[in-house]
Design brief:
Strand order of the largest sheet: 2-1-4-5-6-7
Number of helices: 14
Largest sheet: 6 strands, antiparallel
CATH architecture of the largest domain: 3-Layer(aba) Sandwich
Strand content: 15-25%
Shape: elongated
CATH superfamily of the largest domain: P-loop containing nucleotide triphosphate hydrolases
Number of strands: 16
CATH class of the largest domain: Alpha Beta
Distance between the termini: 47 Å
């Protein structure tokens, strides 16, 4: 059973939002934008959180939480939790356009087989989450080494007062052991995971970068096996560009919460292969989803030079992220993602019309330049084109092909010289990039 859509009305700071679900859903955005509100609304529907009067944004309106899910042999079904101020929860089911009221007991028994598991950021979050998984495994009749290991971990957490860091390591160890066991014997646990819904607040807490990356990998694998997972994070280590359909960006626009998702296909054919290869080389590029503005550049030289010169001009902004795309050919794929999520950006690239280039090289370069310019969404994006390349503009002279060895080092060496003078032309381009 998969949740396909969540709709929330009149809940805490939320007027109305609609979120499309994947097996893995990643909630991101600036602090105090409503990500935790969404998790709590979902937790309330799944019975993990009690709805209180203070949860109403407007006490004169009904509070409503709806989930649409798909179940084999039954198709799409919509369940609705409706609550009026100072009244009890009411539940409704809608199937094939017909809505009827149901009891909570009927809801839990016949229509909501999902078992919600909340792992919050509180001191007892890991213990309560693992205890809930233990209870579910026991009720489902799951036996064997995984259950024994889980029971031991829950008992240990209950009897010992330990740091959150160690608690997270215990959780990490359980998830890893579960996946390893499934890989070895393809046990019946795999089929039981399809009805588990894991809600995970800040999975990055107390994990170093390496452990964060591995935790994210474990969660991706669990979602592929069948568990539905929604997590809220402030870490780029939990943003995989390969899983862009899972990303749900929360922003406040004119003081109202808005959701930005893209569940269509942004790439096809060789674009997917090239983008995935590029992601494996530089997995930290997920930070662009947290940026106020993204500066797309071809390579390392541009990244180093632009950052250095912006600081020299005193216009550098730490809310901007410079993303090294790897090559001019990959920039369009990043533009497509930024367009899809409506994130402000500027694409910075070299014209590459050097005199020493062959006719074929010039034609190829101009086609790439044209493609980048054609993809720019003028409402959120812009582009800055260097006259041949940034090295020529820094040195204010034409350069030969042989001069392109160790470019980042020589460029930084040049701009850090005491007598280096930035041309007005290049200064204007850098100011345009950082405006």
């Amino acid at each position: 059973m998969d949740i396909k859509r969540l709709t929330i009305s009149n809940w805490k700071s939320i007027d109305y939002i609609n979120i499309e679900f994947q097996k893995l859903l990643i909630l991101i955005g600036e602090s105090n934008r409503g990500k935790t509100c969404i998790l709590k609304a979902l937790s309330a529907f799944l019975g993990e959180v009690e709805i209180k009067n203070e949860d109403f944004k407007d006490k004169n309106k009904e509070l409503e939480i709806k989930i649409k899910y798909y179940k084999i042999n039954k198709g799409f079904i919509t369940l609705k939790l409706l609550k009026k101020y100072n009244f009890e929860n009411e539940y409704y089911i809608s199937n094939h356009g017909i809505e009827r009221k149901i009891s909570l007991k009927e809801l839990e028994k016949d229509f909501l087989p999902i078992k919600g598991i909340l792992i919050n950021s509180k001191d007892t979050g890991v213990y309560e989450g693992l205890a809930k998984i233990r209870d579910i495994f026991l009720s489902e009749g799951i036996e064997g080494e995984i259950l024994k290991d889980l029971i031991n971990k829950v008992d240990y957490l209950k009897e010992n007062r330990i740091s959150q860091s160690l608690q997270r390591r215990i959780l990490f160890n359980f998830l890893k052991n579960t996946l390893d066991k499934i890989d070895i014997d393809n046990s019946s646990i795999k089929s039981k995971l399809c009805n588990l819904f894991l809600i995970f607040e800040e999975p990055e807490l107390h994990l170093n970068p390496q452990a964060s990356r591995e935790m994210y990998s474990l969660l991706v694998k669990l979602s592929k096996i069948g568990m539905q997972i929604v997590l809220e994070t402030h870490s780029s280590y939990f943003i995989g560009l390969k899983q862009y359909k899972s990303i749900c960006l929360i922003r406040r626009v004119e003081n109202k919460m808005q959701v930005f998702q893209y569940i269509g296909e942004l790439m096809n054919g060789d674009e997917i292969k090239n983008f995935n290869m590029n992601y494996w080389i530089n997995p930290d590029r997920g930070e662009m989803f947290f940026a106020k503005k993204v500066i797309l550049v071809e390579g390392q030289t541009d990244k180093i030079a632009l950052s250095y010169l912006a600081k020299k001009l005193e216009i550098h902004d730490y809310n901007y992220s410079i993303v090294e795309c790897g090559s001019k050919s990959i920039i369009p794929q990043f533009i497509k993602i930024l367009n899809g999520y409506k994130i402000s950006y500027v694409a910075v690239f070299d014209k590459d019309n050097h005199k020493w280039r062959s006719d074929l090289e010039l034609e190829n370069s101009n086609l790439k330049n044209k493609k980048i310019k054609g993809l720019i969404n003028k409402f959120i994006g812009d582009y800055v084109e260097f006259e041949n390349d940034i090295e020529e503009e820094i040195c204010q002279e034409e350069r030969e092909r042989k001069n392109y060895k160790n470019k980042p080092y020589h460029t930084l060496q040049k701009i850090s010289e005491e007598n280096f003078k930035l041309s007005k032309k290049l200064e204007n381009k850098i100011r345009q990039i950082y405006k």
